[in-house]
Amino acid sequence: MDKLNISFKELFVNNSKLANNAVMSSRLIGMTGYLIKQAGGQVSPTIRAAQAMHDSNKLGPIIFCTPELGKWSTVGGLGVMVDELSVGLADLG
Predict the structure, then answer these.
(1) In contact, 51 and 32? CB cutoff 8 Å
(2) Pair 54, 86 in one domain
(3) Are 18 and 52 in a shared domain?
(4) What are the two backbone dihedrals, phi and then psi, of residue 69, each rounded to the nearest 5 degrees?
(5) How far lies 2's CA from each of 8, 49, 55, in Å?
(6) pLDDT digits (tens, 9 = 90+) for 33-78
(7) Among candidates 51, 25, 27, which has minimal Cα distance to 37?
(8) Residues 53 and 73 both lie in one domain
(9) Based on the domain organization, do 55 and 65 belong to the same domain?
């Protein structure tokens, strides 16, 4: 991409399939975080590209609100599901 003078971020920002699909964009950011974590500090062109994409994410924090509280105050399991979902998303980055 250096030869083309285009950044990894620009490659995906200008991609209409990703720009119009929030699920695919979110998966891409999750996968870049996973790649960076698994690299364990090693630097390669793939990891540099993943880091560039991951650093360009402007999503910010996500908040889940439910009438139940995790594993402590549940009626139908919604609190447990949201608790496990938030932990799983945090693990994905």
Answers:
(1) yes
(2) no
(3) yes
(4) -120, 95
(5) 9, 11, 18
(6) 888 888 988 888 888 888 887 887 766 667 777 777 766 666 767 7
(7) 51
(8) no
(9) no
